[in-house]
């Protein structure tokens, strides 16, 4: 077996560890995806493995996942050892198989049947920050093959410390973020671009190091893979993570970006009886043209109403011209505080995929000089406020008055 690729030394322990769990975290440029692909190839040379590579939603995972892994196999000079059969890659020498699945079926609202995990010895969950704990518990119980050691690898970009992974694998075990090593039944691997500099361009490294000076918070979170801590004085402390429900009425809020600010879109389900508002981020991006924005709205919202920032009536008119159902929000004196009060009267449930929304919730604070919200970290939160104020204070009647 001849290879041109060397596995990062921090990952090599995952091949020999007796731990059931491997928790792999890291920041931008850390080489997580590449190292995991190499790890999968090496594991497949052990006989009797069924290795499952999973993401939260299938999308084009089967084709893209197989293509990505085939590229790594070629890089390692091992093409003769593998063949592709349907949605899996088989190691011809050992008979072990690598399969690709989405943990969610269809529109991403139903947990996949655990029968797809039958016989699995190793499970890799990529983008594990999007996996909710109740789904993970169900999946965890499905990895129980007697043929080989059972392994579950969680590969993720750290997010907020409110995430169940942080509570379960760090806080409850007294493990510091960024730890490398074994604690109990968990093998921790954390890498940054500093562990992968030999594979990065000089200009990319300089870009990251400039970010360290210009935006230390973003550098710590996105580049060094730090966990986001809630700032003191945050406005919304009434939120937790939970899955966006299936087959419910959904409304949408949107805020338009200016200069460096992003355009945003949020899906919202309001349950008045339970006093809960469910939130799911769909768009957080700047530099979009009006046709691009309209296309995203059309694909996400269909013919459902969007309540948008009233500061751009011309943009709203142009988007409406694309056949979309969009209306300007109502603003005025005291509208910000009124909207905040409305949202604070409900329990906010944030879908785990809504990374930018969680960042805003942890950083949206009151100014020192009184009951005034700081105009920062509020692009998604403003969109939510527009829509919820419209529906909860806007005189909606009939079947739409209660969700």
UniProtKB/TrEMBL annotation:
TM region positions: none
Ranges for domain Phage terminase large subunit N-terminal: 21-225
Coiled coil (UniProt feature): none
Domain Phage terminase large subunit C-terminal: 255-388
Pfam families linked: Terminase_3, Terminase_3C
Classification via PANTHER family: PBSX PHAGE TERMINASE LARGE SUBUNIT, PTHR39184
Stated name of the protein: PBSX family phage terminase large subunit
Species of the source: Flavobacterium azizsancarii
């Amino acid at each position: 077996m001849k290879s041109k690729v060397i596995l990062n030394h921090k990952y090599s322990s995952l091949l020999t560890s007796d731990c059931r769990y491997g928790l792999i975290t890291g920041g931008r440029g850390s080489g997580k995806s590449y190292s995991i692909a190499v790890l999968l190839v090496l594991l497949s040379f052990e006989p009797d493995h069924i290795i499952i590579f999973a993401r939260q939603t299938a999308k084009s995972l089967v084709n893209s996942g197989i293509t990505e892994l085939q590229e790594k196999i070629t890089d390692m000079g091992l093409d003769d050892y593998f063949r592709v059969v349907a949605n899996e890659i088989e190691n011809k020498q050992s008979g072990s198989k690598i399969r690709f699945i989405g943990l969610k079926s269809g529109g991403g609202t139903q947990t996949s049947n655990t029968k797809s995990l039958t016989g699995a010895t190793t499970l890799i969950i990529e983008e594990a920050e999007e996996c909710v704990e109740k789904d993970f518990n169900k999946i965890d119980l499905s990895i129980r093959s007697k043929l080989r050691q059972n392994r579950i690898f969680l590969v993720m970009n750290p997010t907020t410390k409110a995430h169940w992974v942080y509570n379960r694998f760090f806080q409850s075990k007294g493990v510091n973020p960024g730890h490398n090593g074994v604690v109990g039944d968990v093998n921790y691997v954390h890498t940054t671009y500093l562990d992968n500099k030999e594979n990065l361009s000089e200009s990319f490294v300089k870009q990251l190091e400039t970010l360290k000076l210009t935006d230390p918070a973003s550098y710590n979170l996105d580049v060094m893979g730090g966990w986001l801590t809630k700032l003191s004085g945050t406005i919304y402390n009434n939120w937790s993570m939970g899955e966006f429900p299936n087959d419910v009425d959904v409304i949408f809020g949107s805020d338009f970006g200016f200069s460096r600010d992003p355009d945003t879109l949020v899906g919202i389900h309001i349950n008045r009886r339970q006093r809960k508002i469910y939130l799911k981020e769909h768009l957080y991006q700047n530099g979009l043209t009006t046709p691009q924005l309209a296309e995203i709205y059309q694909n996400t919202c269909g013919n459902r109403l969007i309540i948008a920032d009233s500061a751009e009536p011309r943009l709203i008119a142009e988007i409406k011209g694309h056949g979309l159902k969009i209306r300007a929000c109502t603003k005025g004196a005291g509208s910000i505080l009124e909207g905040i009060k409305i949202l604070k009267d409900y329990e906010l449930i944030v879908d785990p995929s809504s990374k930018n929304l969680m960042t805003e919730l942890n950083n949206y604070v009151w100014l020192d000089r009184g009951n005034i919200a700081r105009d920062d970290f509020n692009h998604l939160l403003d969109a939510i406020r527009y829509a919820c104020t419209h529906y909860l204070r806007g005189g909606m009647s009939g079947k739409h008055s209660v969700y």
